[in-house]
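Tokens for chain A. Residues wanted.
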């Protein structure tokens, strides 16, 4: 008999039309015997209808799609107004906390006003006295969706609902290739930290990040590009919550792609769905990492290693058409069939299948034809409860760290931890475990050109941290060059804006005070000049701004006043300044020229 659905789960869906994944078949494997269930035979008896109604009354579905976020409660589907025009690529639900939604460049936190069994979005802010939010003001619909984190191309999202932290993966397109970065922050977005960057040959696959809060570990799949494998080698990485790599399971899959993952935290098993091109069946597989957990607490600074050989991969099921959705909860696997969310009983024992009973858990009744889905989360009304009273999280109760605290033990009873500082801060050498210095580390400013828009990043020279510089009010821009006044902590840049309607191009010099970094702080220094600027430099010692057009070298005050042409050339392309030694350097008429800051004594 079916039990009432308990506890939330997360499963992931790639860009795929709903009608494409209809009429799925589901295969369950036990003792090398495959049991195949055709989806047309599901829900044929009266008791199945009653069980489906019981599931439907308890389940709440949250669907991330191209047109926004949809919520199904008691069979009724509604949307979130503040996310109506946003492609919601990933959704994560914290068992004892809020719901998080990721778009291309932001992570939103939803509070209880959306009708979900989740906590209020401001509970952490009230507890900590901090109410900072990305972008300043509210979301425009009663605070239902509040942007707490902004970043560069968010590809995966997961939450640690014991440590109350959000994890996400970003992808940065550098000349060396796609660089994947794993980041962490608290529920309010106030203590951001970059845990690590993967090598350029290693890419964290989209929608494959999972968190096992019970055993304090991160799990994700990596595609490794090699000369011998055109499609790359798939690896399963298991890390501690502080980012330390513990295990690296290589060649775990030979499929073209891993399209979805889900975790059975109670039994320490990760399930995934792998897909090949064409109409070949999608394979659902699993891997038990329970025997690896003691290594997590063996050392404060573990080194990556391969699991004991041989390791077993569980062949769980086959689906006759790719659905790209998968979730595990309470002995059941869940997947999508057209407009239906199907729950399939695995039976007793993890990784085994004593029955192949499948039932429809929820049905979408108000969806658009051909809507492209990205992600789905199911919540249980009966599951909204706190963790057992006997459980105490060392980081939450003792609060031993100044900023970020991470458990790294393999069991709840054994709660060892590490401390990390938020972006830009270094540990205090006199109190390296718990304290952080108040002075910021050195960092490098870079701009990333993505064709139709750009991102500006601050990258630490001392750690792996990076942080996006938020150019609020400029949703689409291309940053041509950057300069900085380090004394005033103000950046200057030239942006190249495409106005599609007017079919015109404008180039503007702007500046932003990084100490405030709030909406409305961007200032225009120069706009619609006779000649468009090509490059700029800041003399922070004298308070002057230099820029070049196609033929001129121009100087002004930092606010754009008192413009004066220092020199004219047939062609000038770049300018840089050395305020300490009092020199200008620029490329003019095919030469690298040095002059004094007033433009004379050219050499």
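Reply:
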């Amino acid at each position: 008999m079916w039990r009432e659905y308990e506890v939330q789960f997360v499963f992931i869906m790639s860009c795929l039309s709903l009608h494409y994944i209809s009429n799925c078949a589901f295969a369950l494997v036990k003792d090398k015997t495959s049991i195949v269930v055709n989806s047309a035979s599901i829900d044929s008896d009266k008791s199945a209808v009653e069980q489906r109604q019981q599931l439907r009354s308890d389940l709440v579905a949250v669907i991330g799609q191209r047109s926004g976020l949809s919520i199904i409660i008691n069979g009724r589907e509604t949307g979130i107004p503040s996310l109506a025009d946003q492609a919601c690529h990933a959704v994560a639900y914290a068992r004892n906390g809020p719901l998080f939604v990721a778009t291309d460049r932001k992570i939103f936190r939803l509070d209880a006003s959306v009708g979900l069994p989740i906590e209020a979005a401001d509970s952490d802010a009230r507890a900590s006295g901090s109410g900072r939010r990305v972008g300043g003001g509210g979301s425009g619909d009663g605070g239902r969706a509040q942007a707490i984190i902004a970043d560069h191309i968010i590809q995966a999202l997961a939450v640690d609902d014991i440590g109350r932290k959000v994890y996400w993966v970003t992808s940065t397109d550098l000349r060396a290739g796609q660089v994947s970065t794993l980041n962490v922050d608290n529920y309010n977005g106030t203590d951001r930290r970059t845990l690590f960057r993967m090598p350029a040959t290693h890419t964290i696959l989209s929608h494959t990040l999972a968190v096992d809060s019970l055993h304090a570990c991160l799990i994700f799949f990596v595609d490794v590009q090699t000369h011998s494998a055109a499609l790359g080698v798939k690896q399963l990485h298991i890390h501690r919550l502080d980012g330390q790599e513990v295990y690296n399971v290589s060649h775990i899959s030979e499929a073209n792609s891993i399209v979805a993952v889900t975790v059975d935290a109670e039994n320490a098993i990760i399930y995934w769905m792998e897909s090949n091109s064409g109409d070949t069946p999608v394979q659902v597989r699993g891997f038990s990492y329970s025997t690896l957990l003691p290594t997590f607490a063996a050392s404060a600074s573990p080194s990556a290693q391969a699991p004991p050989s041989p390791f077993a991969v569980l062949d769980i099921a086959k689906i006759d058409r790719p659905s790209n959705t998968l979730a595990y909860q309470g002995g059941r696997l869940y997947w999508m069939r057209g407009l239906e969310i199907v729950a399939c009983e695995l039976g007793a024992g993890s990784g085994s299948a004593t029955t192949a009973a499948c039932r429809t858990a929820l049905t979408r009744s108000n969806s658009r034809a051909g809507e492209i889905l990205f992600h789905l989360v199911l919540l249980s009304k009966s599951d909204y409860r706190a963790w057992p009273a006997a459980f105490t999280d060392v980081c939450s109760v003792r609060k031993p760290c100044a900023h970020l605290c991470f458990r790294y033990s393999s069991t709840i009873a054994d709660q060892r931890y590490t401390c990390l500082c938020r972006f830009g801060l270094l540990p205090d050498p006199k109190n390296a475990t718990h304290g952080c210095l108040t002075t910021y580390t050195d960092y490098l400013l870079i701009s990333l050109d993505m064709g139709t828009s750009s991102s500006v990043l601050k990258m630490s020279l001392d750690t792996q941290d990076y942080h996006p510089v938020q150019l609020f009010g400029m949703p689409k821009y291309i940053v041509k060059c950057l300069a900085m006044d380090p004394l005033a902590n103000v950046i200057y840049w030239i942006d190249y804006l495409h106005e599609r309607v007017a079919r015109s191009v404008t180039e503007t010099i702007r500046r932003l005070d990084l100490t405030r970094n709030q909406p409305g702080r961007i200032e225009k220094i120069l706009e619609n000049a006779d000649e468009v600027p090509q490059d700029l430099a800041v003399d922070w010692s004298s308070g002057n701004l230099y820029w070049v057009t196609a033929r001129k070298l121009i100087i002004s005050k930092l606010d754009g006043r008192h413009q004066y042409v220092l020199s004219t050339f047939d062609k000038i392309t770049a300018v840089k300044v050395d305020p300490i030694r009092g020199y200008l350097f620029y490329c003019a008429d095919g030469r690298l020229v040095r002059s004094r800051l007033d433009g004379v004594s050219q050499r």
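The chain has a mean pLDDT of 71. The chain is about 5% helix and 45% strand.
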